Predict the structure.
Amino acid sequence: MKHKTSKETSRLTGAKMLLNCAVNGAAVSREIDTGLTLADFLRRELGLTGTKVGCGEGECGACVVVVDGAAVNSCLYMAAQAQGRTVLTIEGLAGPDGEPHPIQRAFAECGAVQCGFCTPGMVMSAYALLARRPEPARAEIVEALSGNICRCTGYEKIFQSVERAAQLLADRLGRK
Amino acid sequence: MFPVKIVRPDTLKDVWLLVKNAGGPVKFLAGGTDLAISAHCGRADGETWIDIGALAELKGIRLKGKKLYIGACEKVSALGENALVRKHAPVLFDSVRQYASPPLRNIATLGGNCGNASPSADGVCALVAEGADALLFDGKTHSRRPVEKLFAGPKRTVLKPGQLITGFEIPIRGGRGVYLKLAARKNFAISKICMGVSLKTGSGAINDIRISLGAVGPTVKRALKAEKILLGVKLDEKILDLAARAAVAAAAPIDDQRSTAAYRKAMAGVLLKRALRALCA
């Protein structure tokens, strides 16, 4: 057996790894402790604190980000699992000129934000839904956001925002 | 950060080399939703997690003769979007929309759901109703075991150290199925009680039936006496009552934070009646 480099030993023991992924459109390559959750990686290593951690147990959905097009709870998703994948966070939604994304605009217009702590997770769950189902029925919106808890708004304005966002996105694409 | 280490094998073959090198407690990370919670609660210190979630050998949903194969590391959400699962595993398909939340379904896997061995696991309860076998591999020998016989108690499987669930095979029985669950709310809640019923009828009589019960005992189990009562008969109110009573007798629940034993027991009969009425209507 050939002599193992320290990097290779580290890979086998699992203490560290070189994580290569894309975050908000930019390639990221960083040596990380493998015990890091994706939420910790985004917040502490990359300074992307828009992603919130509420319960840390996958119950509240404040930490939802989009990985390869699918909404995931980043508090239960290890950074190591993002190897080779594409991660989108709330910071990656706005246009290059800082123009809010239609979902963000809809949340603001419809008054879907009160304390705001759940909002990034709600917006990212909505993003994943609308990418898959551009014209969702109300029941599909309710279902898609069922992993996101809000303690302020009572949900109605959030659901309305997603319907409004679907309209804004359709207008942008000239569909209607 | 969790005080755990994660190693990522490139192929299935590498898994057991990594198990050998770990030098401490080892767990397989499929999706990781249960492991991460255990770490969050301080129950995983010093563990090495072998991340098998991206291994191609543990993926895939396809027909294998008269069986439907599902890789252990397929995401739960993928099952709910799959035409083969919809057609050939109706209980499992029906369970997906009731399984945790959409973002958790995008991480969680059936292999992990079985490995975690919760008595209220929706994936397990659905697989037992489907009559699924778990396919096992320890690096040397392949074997199989009915899913209902995978468990020794709450959070305990009968798997040997280093033995891995690689996938599942569901016999294609051409019947209908339904998955019912009662919980504190409709979406994203752990069951007070859950039930899978898979059946086939011919000439008006039930000629094949499997009933699974979850969250009413230390492991997911079948309601065998209720199945026996229903097999070969045409459904009427008397049979429904008899079968429901047998389901109640099969339930051996406890009082806990989610429900009481008495409620769970009573609901075993109610759910079975609902399921049978829905499937035989």
